[in-house]
Amino acid sequence: MLPIEVTELKKHYGNLKAVDGISFSVKEGEVFGLLGPNGAGKTTTIEIMEGLRERNSGDVKILGLDPWKNGYELHKKIGVIPQEFTFFEKTSPREAINYYANLFGVKVDADEILKEVLLEDMAKQNFENLSGGQKQKMGLALSLVNAPELLFLDEPTTGLDPNARRAIWEVIRGLKAKGKTIILTTHYLDEAQQLSDRVAIMDHGGIVAMGTTEEIIQKHGSGERLEIHGNKKLADYIKANTELQVKYDEAKKEITIPIEKKIDALAALAAAEQSGLDWGEIQTRQDSLDDVFVKLVSEPIEEQGNTESIEKTSKKKRR
Amino acid sequence: MVSGKRIYADFKVFSVGYLRNKFGLFFGLIFPVILILIFGAIFSGGGTGTVNVFAQNQDEGVFGQNIGDQFLAALNESTTIKVITVDASENFADYLAAHSASDGIIIPQSFSADYLSGQQVNVTVYGNPASSTSGIVGGTIGGYANYFNLQRFNGSMVIGLSSATVNTEQTSYVDFLIPGLIGFSILTSPMFSLVNISSEYKKTKLFKQLSLTPLTKMEWLISKVIWYIVLTIAGFLLMVGVGIFGFGAHVTLSLWLIPFLVLGPMLFAALGMLVGTVTKNPETAGVIGNIVTFPMMFLAGTFFPITSMPQYLQTVAHILPLFYVTEGLNNVMVYGNISGAIIDIAVLGIITLVIFVLAVKLFKWRED
Question: What residues pair up with A184 in beta bridges, in sequence order?
Answer without folding.
Answer: A33, A153
